[in-house]
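Supplementary Text 2. Reproducibility record for the structural model of the 167-residue chain.

All settings were left at their defaults, and a single model was retained for analysis rather than an ensemble. We include the record here because the model underlies the residue-level annotations in Supplementary Table 4.
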Amino acid sequence: MGSAGHDEMMNATLAQLNVSQGGVPKGPVDAARVTRFGVEGDAQRNLKYHGGPNRAVCIFSEELYADLREEGIDVTNGAFGENFTTRGLDLNALEKGDRLRVGDCLVEITDVRVPCNTLKKWSAKLPKSIVGRSGWVAKVVEEAVVKPRDAITVLEREPRFTFSPAS
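Retained model, structure tokens:
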């Protein structure tokens, strides 16, 4: 697990589950199956930069949206095209390789979400202003149906052993 402790994330939940037929914003749905190919009912227009097995799910938080609204950028859940809008989860405390249990689904963080120029529709400065707080993309390790209000748990990271040949 990253530097975040369990106490900080005990009440983390999936605030909103989002899909679209391509583009942003993504709209809320009551439930959907999350597979290694992504969230059923969701599509991406540009598969060169979005989607695929290592970017099956995009994650952003209500807290990051609140920060942006305080900066005068009028955005709400789903606006940035994330599938999982979280609540009570410090995304900045996560690292590549961290695993999140979202209801019965298990995802593994694969990379920082790279903000694309499509986000300029809200503010010309937006893609640059959210660098470092742009959310994550993840692969799906265990498929399941998820729904808003599902609990999110950050799992302990597996120890990584390295082999050193004897001298």
